[in-house]
Amino acid sequence: MSDQKLILVIGGTGAQGTPVVKALSESGRYSVRVLTRNVASEKATALAELPNVTLIQGSQDSQKDLHAAFTGVYGAWVNLDGFTIGEKNELFYGIRAYEIARYHGVEHYVFANIDYGLRKADWDERYHCGHCDAKGRVGDLILSHGQSGMKTSLLTTGPYMDMLFDGMFVPKAQDDGSFVWENPAADGKIPLIALDDVGVYSLWLFDHPSQSAGLNLEVATDQVSFAEIAATFTKVTGKKGVHKRVALEDYLSKAEPYPDAYANWAVKPTEPRDESFMTWRENFTAWWRYWGEGKGATRDMAFLDSIHSTRIPNLEAWMRAKSYDGRPRSVLKDLSDFKK
Ligand SMILES: NC(=O)c1ccc[n+]([C@@H]2O[C@H](COP(=O)([O-])OP(=O)(O)OC[C@H]3O[C@@H](n4cnc5c(N)ncnc54)[C@H](OP(=O)(O)O)[C@@H]3O)[C@@H](O)[C@H]2O)c1
Fold first, then answer.
1. What domains sit in the chain, N to C, each tagged with a CATH number?
2. Pocket of ligand 1 (CB under 6 A)
3. Structure pTM?
């Protein structure tokens, strides 16, 4: 019989979960069960071809599906998707997923977290970003239950470095050959995380339970302002990169996925919603404030070096490794599904 430990990965077909599934599979120490709404999707079938990876069909917002998914697993890596299920459901199912994991005797639970911006900004409502705070609240709560019975770790990411390819961080190519990032970011440093390193940190959390139990591992590859992103782009590509700061109001109406979109933009506009649902604009107003002002630049880079000595050292190295040229490439599954 195999002595591999079985890990349930929720969100495994997504941008963040895919490198986690790959790292666990490649290690040879773990087998992986991926929860997906569609076991026949391109991303799901590609994962199922990896060694020791199986799929289970179900939804994050179904307690029945969560019970089936958590049955018989040693560990779990859980990334809920606020852009589909919304802030309120993320909070409810974030708590239920933890409780159901405990019921099934899961031994190590890794929660894919984001900064609890509202708490870190001293409860200033102007920083209440629904999809970040939903995760942050769940993260605080599950750590508060302590480490006896089930070990719990938080993997706290900020914006993906890979978003420089997709969505709000893609610069616009200008006729004169330069690239412009026109957005409301102030001059704060943003802790960008390269998705390639998310798998390594997740594997470390599972491999080192005595160090990772109770740990909130805030990760980043580099903490950089948008002016620094533009300057690094120029250094790497030889092309002129510029950050142009614009007013939030001017930016948001141009950037939203569709007019008057909700924060959970990735499901149909006609989906029932109540007053707890933020609009996309409200959500990303707080998001740009929090990250753009540098409030998330709290990562302990020396600690990250100590647990992942071969990590991608900085933005420049990432741009070189990816042959970054400012042109868009698909990163988010939701965004690519939405465009289809
Ligand atoms: N973009 C960023 O920079 C960033 C940074 C940090 C954290 N995050 C957070 O990451 C989450 C999104 O994950 P991602 O970045 O990997 O996005 P993604 O590439 O768009 O993937 C979305 C994932 O969520 C899964 N999913 C969505 N609704 C589901 C449901 N009802 N039941 C089961 N699975 C469901 C999808 O699985 P199937 O389609 O296969 O069902 C897919 O695996 C969001 O909560 C976001 O706040 C994003």
1. 5-159+192-220+296-312 (3.40.50.720)
2. 11, 13-17, 35-38, 41, 44, 59-61, 79-85, 114, 131, 157, 159-160, 163, 332-334
3. 0.98
